[in-house]
Amino acid sequence: MTTRRTLIALASLLAFAGATVHAQTAAEKQLAADKFTLVAPFPAGGPIDTLARVLADGLAKRYNQIAVVDNAPGAAGNIGMDKVKRAKPDGHTLLVIPAGNLTVNPTLMPKFPFDIQKDFVPVAMLAKTPNVLVTNPATGIKSVADLIAQAKARPDSLSYASPGVGSGLHLAGELFKSQANVDILHIAYKGTPPAINDLLGGTVPLMFSNLPTVLPHIKSGKLVALAVTDSARTPTAPDIPTLTELGIPGVVVPSWYGLMAPGGTPPDVAAQLARDAAAILAEPAVRERLQGQGLSAWDIQTAAFDTHIRDETARWAKVIKARNITME
After folding, report:
1. CB–CB of 94/51 below 8 Å?
2. Both 39 and 182 in a single domain?
3. Does residue 242 lie in a domain region?
4. Is residue 244 part of a domain?
5. Full strand arrangement of the beta sheet holding 255-262
């Protein structure tokens, strides 16, 4: 009797184990079959690199596979994008990319070498960080109302810095000008550091910047924060109002980062990767790591992410064309 009961128990355990194995989806089996490469088309360091490494670590653990980060900078991110475009569409080569490469460059670059809708499959939005309008305290500008009043009283008296033509921060400035009906001269720099240096030195009075970059200067009093360009105040700096609160609607421009796969990647594989990314980014240790860089997870997956890309591309195309913005 005991032997019979033992055999029944063993049979039940084996059946349960078999069911567990069978429960693994075809997409999961495919993803567990080979190593992962996360392409980061910018140099090591910064949010793109951080997100790629977080995902690589998470995918390696989830699928018991090797996962590596390939930093492939150059040509404003196009070199890394081309690597992913040409990769086998099996979910094992993925692209971690900032918004501008997907939604701005297709309009801004006359010879943009990709068709975002055909060459890539949207997997998921990963994270975002708020942008903030800041000024040097020497300007005497203490609010957005002050800024608008000065710009209208003395046309062409103000300028704002950006890390480069066509950057998200440049376009945030142009959108603000349009919505606030003011004329402020744009001064393009080659990257954020020299723009911040001139802002701190008083050479240029205003700038739209990623909040994490300028938050230490805001706290020290070297810069004055006027407003964030997001839909809500940020927990990182809850005292800074949104532009919408201040009567300037439509300037909702956070910096965000997404995950893309090569065109032709099966929908079930992309959907599984989106679920994996969401689970990885929800881990407390990962959230803490992202918060250290001023990032917060932003979970928008597959079809909804695709819609977001299309909508934002159309939005920026209107701004680029209306403001006659061209690459230098």
Report:
1. no
2. no
3. no
4. no
5. 67-71, 36-40, 93-98, 255-262, 120-129, 296-301
Q: Which domain holds residue 199?
A: 131-228
pTM of the model: 0.82
Place of tokens 């499959």: 121
| Domain containing residue 195: CATH number | 3.40.190.10
pLDDT for 3 equals 53
Number of domains into which the chain is organized: 2
Three-state secondary structure along the chain? CHHHHHHHHHHHHHHHHHHHHHHCCHHHHHHCCCCEEEEECCCCCHHHHHHHHHHHHHHHHHHCCCEEEEECCCHHHHHHHHHHHCCCCCCCEEEEEEHHHHHCHHHHCCCCCCCHHHHEEEEEEEEEECEEEEECHHHCCCCHHHHHHHHHHCCCCCEEEECCCCCHHHHHHHHHHHHHCCCCEEEECCCHHHHHHHHHHCCCCEEEEEHHHHHHHHHHCCCEEEEECCCCCCCCCCCCCECCCCCCCCCCCCEEEEEEEECCCCHHHHHHHHHHHHHHHCCHHHHHHHHCCCCEEEEEEHHHHHHHHHHHHHHHHHHHHHCCCCCC
| CATH number, position 273 | 3.40.190.150
Could you read off the pLDDT of 130-146 as tens digits, one per residue? Answer: 899 999 999 999 999 99
Q: pLDDT tens digit string along 219-257? A: 999 999 999 999 899 888 899 999 999 999 989 988 999
